[in-house]
Amino acid sequence: MSPQLLATLNSVDVTKYVVEYRISKNFVSYRYEPDPFGASKRNARYNPDGVNCFYIADSIETAQREVNFSFKDKALYYVNPCSIFAFDAQRFAKDFSFSPMLTGAEKDGGYQFSQDLAEHLVNTQGLSGVAYPSRQMALEGKTGMCIAILPQNSQLDSGKLLIFHKPTV
Q1: Angle, nearest 10°, between helix axes 110-125 and 3-11?
Q2: pLDDT tens digit string along 56-111?
Q3: Which burial class, exposed, middle or buried, applies to 1 when counting CB atoms under 10 A from its CB (0-12, 13-18, 19+)?
Q4: Which residue has the higher pLDDT, 167 or 112?
Q5: 72 in helix, strand or coil?
Q6: β-pairing, 145-149 with 18-23?
């Protein structure tokens, strides 16, 4: 972890950045079939390989922009309405001039910064959610929001997060 990020996280009351997000019927996630409730453990913005993470987005458009893969092996699922308490990474980044790192591309260290932030929040603060702006939507001049849910194994039901449902036709 960068010394600047670590020093900032250790000097700030992170609870001031925890926000209750009311998940509406618009929140979605592309899930691997046939295990849509299992975690993604592939390297991504907020989780390195092997770490549980569930990514949700505020709209189908945001989810499609964020997911850079073939849609053949995934299906769209909606998130059951609920409240999620998550760290507002965008506000934190603006307050401490970390915005370029928060939204940076993987090759520019953006994933490492975000993974370090999430690891610290999960392991030292007990937080399991990080809300952040969609980089892909911003590149198109649009806005979109995502939440990375990083639960510990003990927070899962047999390794699954049972908050998703298939859309009804």
Answers
A1: 30
A2: 999 999 998 888 666 667 889 999 999 999 999 999 999 999 988 888 878 888 78
A3: middle
A4: 112
A5: helix
A6: unpaired
